């Protein structure tokens, strides 16, 4: 019997996705550049379902039913192009190439356009959930043509995570939309992890709470509105004791955070779109600063802190929880707002309720909160910003006093809280009647004749700063 899907690239992610397909009753043809990985997979898990072993891409393709579905799960970047180049001469019109790795959406748009000219479907699929998700049910964000989704979607839906019987997989929109949505998911993930880190740091430095005590606090927090995978695993990591030293593991891990690139891409893309994703950007920068260990070593010696002792108040732990919650809401709001901007820029019909629902399970940012976000965007009247949805406006409003107190305390203590504070600045920026952007416009007009709009009359205006300082109406050509 021919296979319904072929998987090429059998490192941890590809192998687990292949097993997931097989465990769900599909026949899966297997291929890897070096045959050893194929054989290792078959030796360890060959009895989990119907697999077909192949040694070359030509053999992989020969073993597939038509239209052929070939899923690529190799290292992102050049290797994806090289596998596509090898596959194209082997395929027929209407066949589907799927890239389920963490590819940059710009590459996906290019590949989709190139392959469409050759009559092939190219589907960039965002997959989140790490190794375990790939095996047991990830959150899946497919892009590509709607037509290809008809032939591929049901299989992806079957292997995805489910919530109340609904798959965490749905067609997102055309070309690179799936990878874009996955990228923004990762951007939110960066911010989510950073705000957790800021809460931990404040509780440690400010309140002197040891990791084991904090593990209990995070466990408790995981029962309320913060309930999420990341809070759950924070409790696990903080509660873990290093076998070698007997110290909390978190104390023996080097405090320099790595990154593979999706957070950086989110920020780059946010800049291209003019989308104010300040919390996400700060979280990427925070990782960058953590990695500058040489400079940090000097900074510890030469920079003065002038910290001020502060009375934390009786409810400091609860205040930190609320600040964490409010900041987390901002990072989701910014990520979703960026999706709205991207939809307009790239002509994607992104449905934010569906996207939020894809993230309810299987992925790293899965959280109870996403159920309410899904509801907020499913309402007849879609909020222009998540924070304007009545339930969220109320929830974040209730957290504001604690949020302000915590940031003020952090500043006094000299504890860096870049995402707590930039999130509050975003919130205050959104609700400000007047922003200093009016002054910015005045300055731009003075040094560069960039013109400004007036609040009382339509049109563009310029003040003749170097002349008699009268105002003239101007064409806004700058
Ligand atoms: P890697 O990213 O480590 O890539 C290894 C695989 O790529 C091997 O199968 C390797 O073959 C193959 N490969 C590398 N170069 C080439 C080439 N030029 N031609 C053909 N094959 C090549 O594997 P992972 O499983 O960790 O990740 C796969 C993809 O999934 C990546 O895009 C990654 O970013 C993404 N990913 C996603 C995660 C998620 O949570 N969604 C988590 C981790 C990864 P060989 O064995 O012959 O060397």
From TrEMBL:
Keywords: Gluconate utilization, NADP, Oxidoreductase, Pentose shunt. SMART domains: 6PGD. Its EC number is 1.1.1.44. The keyword Oxidoreductase applies. Pathway: Carbohydrate degradation; pentose phosphate pathway; D-ribulose 5-phosphate from D-glucose 6-phosphate (oxidative stage): step 3/3. SUPFAM superfamilies: 6-phosphogluconate dehydrogenase C-terminal domain-like, NAD(P)-binding Rossmann-fold domains. The keyword Oxidoreductase applies. It comes from the Bacteria. InterPro entries: 6-PGluconate_DH-like_C_sf (IPR008927), 6PGD_dom2 (IPR013328), 6PGDH_C (IPR006114), 6PGDH_Gnd/GntZ (IPR006113), 6PGDH_NADP-bd (IPR006115), 6PGdom_BS (IPR006184), NAD(P)-bd_dom_sf (IPR036291), Pgluconate_DH (IPR006183). Residues 178-466 form the 6-phosphogluconate dehydrogenase C-terminal domain. GO terms for molecular function: phosphogluconate dehydrogenase (decarboxylating) activity. It catalyses: 6-phospho-D-gluconate + NADP(+) = D-ribulose 5-phosphate + CO2 + NADPH. Catalyzes the oxidative decarboxylation of 6-phosphogluconate to ribulose 5-phosphate and CO(2), with concomitant reduction of NADP to NADPH. Belongs to the 6-phosphogluconate dehydrogenase family. Homodimer. This is 6-phosphogluconate dehydrogenase, decarboxylating. The lineage of its organism: Bacteria, Bacillati, Actinomycetota, Actinomycetes, Micrococcales.
């Amino acid at each position: 019997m021919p296979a319904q899907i072929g998987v090429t690239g059998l490192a941890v992610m590809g192998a687990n996705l292949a097993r997931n397909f097989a465990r769900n009753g599909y026949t899966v043809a297997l291929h890897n550049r070096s045959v050893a990985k194929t054989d290792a997979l078959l030796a360890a898990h060959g009895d989990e379902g119907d697999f077909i072993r192949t040694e070359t891409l030509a053999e992989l393709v020969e073993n597939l039913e038509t239209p052929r579905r070939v899923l690529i799960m190799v290292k992102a970047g050049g290797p994806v192009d090289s596998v596509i180049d090898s596959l194209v001469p082997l395929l027929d019109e209407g066949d589907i190439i799927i890239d389920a790795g963490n590819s940059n959406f710009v590459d996906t748009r290019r590949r989709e356009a190139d392959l469409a000219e050759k009559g092939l479907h190219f589907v960039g699929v965002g997959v989140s959930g790490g190794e375990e998700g790939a095996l047991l049910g990830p959150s899946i964000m497919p892009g590509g043509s709607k037509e290809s989704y008809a032939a591929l979607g049901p299989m992806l839906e079957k292997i995805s995570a489910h919530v109340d019987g609904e798959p965490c997989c749905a067609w997102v929109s055309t070309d690179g939309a799936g990878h874009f949505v996955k990228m923004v998911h990762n951007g939110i993930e960066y911010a989510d992890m950073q705000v957790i880190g800021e809460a931990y740091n404040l509780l440690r430095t400010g309140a002197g709470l040891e990791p084991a005590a904090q593990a209990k606090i995070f466990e408790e927090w995981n029962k309320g509105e913060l309930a999420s995978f990341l809070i759950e695993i924070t409790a696990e990591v903080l509660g873990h004791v290093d076998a070698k030293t007997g110290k909390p593991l978190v104390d023996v891990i080097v405090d320099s955070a790595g990154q593979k690139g999706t957070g950086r891409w989110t920020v780059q893309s946010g800049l291209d779109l003019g989308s104010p994703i300040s919390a996400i950007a700060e979280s990427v920068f925070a990782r960058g600063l953590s990695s500058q260990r040489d400079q940090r070593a000097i900074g510890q010696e030469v920079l003065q802190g002038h910290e001020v002792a502060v009375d934390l108040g009786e409810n400091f732990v609860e205040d930190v929880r609320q600040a964490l919650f409010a900041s987390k809401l901002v990072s989701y709001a910014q990520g979703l707002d960026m999706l709205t901007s991207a939809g307009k820029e790239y002509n994607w019909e992104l449905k934010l309720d569906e996207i939020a629902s894809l993230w309810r399970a299987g992925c790293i940012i899965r959280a109870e909160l996403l159920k309410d976000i899904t509801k907020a965007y499913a309402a007849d009247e879609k909020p222009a910003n998540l924070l304007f949805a009545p339930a969220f406006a109320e929830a974040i409003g209730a957290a504001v006093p604690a949020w302000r107190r915590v940031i003020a305390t952090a500043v006094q203590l000299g504890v860096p809280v870049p995402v707590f504070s930039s999130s509050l600045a975003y919130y205050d920026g959104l609700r400000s009647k007047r922003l200093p952007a009016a002054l910015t416009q005045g300055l731009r007009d003075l040094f560069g004749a960039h013109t400004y709009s007036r609040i009382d009359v339509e049109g563009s205006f310029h003040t003749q700063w170097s002349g008699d300082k009268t105002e003239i109406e101007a064409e806004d050509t700058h």
